[in-house]
Amino acid sequence: MDRIHTRRYHRSVLAIEFIDTRLGPDLDDAGVTTRWLFHRGIRSEPTPADLAELARLQSTADHLLRTAVTGEAADAGAIDHLNACSAAAAVAPQLNWPVNGRPRMWLSTSGDSGAHVLGVIARSVIELLTGERARLRVCEAHGCRRVYLSASARRRWCSDACGNRVRVARHAARRQLTG
Ligand SMILES: [Zn+2]
């Protein structure tokens, strides 16, 4: 039985980072992906076949999260794929409580670690879509299109950098109108 340690890591954030072109794993590089997963409390060294499956899950997750923002109908095949990834991994939260230590959660898995990783990420997508869906946004700054969790209803960009670009673009547009 594998033991996979999970730190207190916001589960929903995992789904968003996984599809992010800047924060997400480089699925062409097994070493980089291993470290990316490790920093998120997931111990696994993906094989080339695992990386291909992760890439498939990435496009499924990307489609479903963007669909949640636009309100379009989700692709039935994408939903089936996500559910299959979640179902393929038998993961059980386990309590580890050392003497004089704090109780911590571990995830034990009896399946192979590639399926485990897919399951953990798929469940993060499910938790996000069924939990904080109302806070999901797609950045409106030109050329960004990043999916993010909004802290306020009025903010329509993912970062300060994108916010500045939106303001500069608005300013330029106003000057063109008045000048
Ligand atoms: Zn942005």
Molecular structure report:
This protein has 179 residues and is α+β, with helices and mostly antiparallel strands. It has one domain: Jann2411-like fold. It is 51% helix and 12% strand. The chain has six helices and five strands; from the N terminus they run βααααββαββα. It has helices at 11-19, 30-38, 48-70, 76-88, 113-130, 160-178, and strands at residues 2-5, 91-96, 104-109, 136-138, 147-149. The strands form two sheets. Strands 1-3-2 form a three-stranded antiparallel beta sheet. Strand 4 (136-138) and strand 5 form a beta hairpin. Helix 3 (48-70) packs parallel to helix 5. The longest helix has 23 residues, at 48-70. The chain is elongated and about 70 Å long. 25% of the residues are buried. Residues 1-8 have low confidence and may be disordered. Bound molecules: zinc ion. The site of zinc ion has 8 residues, from loops.
Question: Any descriptors?
Answer:
single chain; 5 strands; binds zinc ion; 51% helix; 179 residues; alpha+beta; Jann2411-like fold
Summed up:
By secondary structure, the protein is α+β, with helices and mostly antiparallel strands.
Write the layout of secondary structure elements.
Layout: E1 2-5, H1 11-19, H2 30-38, H3 48-70, H4 76-88, E2 91-96, E3 104-109, H5 113-130, E4 136-138, E5 147-149, H6 160-178
Antiparallel strand pairs: 1-3, 2-3, 4-5
Bound molecules: zinc ion (ZN).
Estimate the helix proportion, in percent.
40-55%
| Main beta-sheet strand count, sense and barrel state | 3 strands, antiparallel
- How far is the N terminus from the C terminus? 70 Å
Mean pLDDT: 87
Structural domain count: 1
Beta content comes to 5-15%
Instruction: List low-confidence stretches.
Output: 1-8
The tally of strands reads: 5
Please trace the helix and strand order, writing H or E for each element: EHHHHEEHEEH
Q: Just name the CATH architecture.
A: Orthogonal Bundle
User: What general form does the structure show?
Assistant: elongated
- The CATH superfamily is known as Jann2411-like domain
CATH class descriptor: Mainly Alpha
Counted by DSSP, the helix tally is 6
Radius of gyration: 19 Å
According to CATH, the fold-level topology is Jann2411-like fold
Bound molecules: zinc ion
Oligomer: single chain
- The largest sheet has its strands arranged as 1-3-2
Task: Determine the structural class based on helices, strands and strand pairing.
Answer: alpha+beta
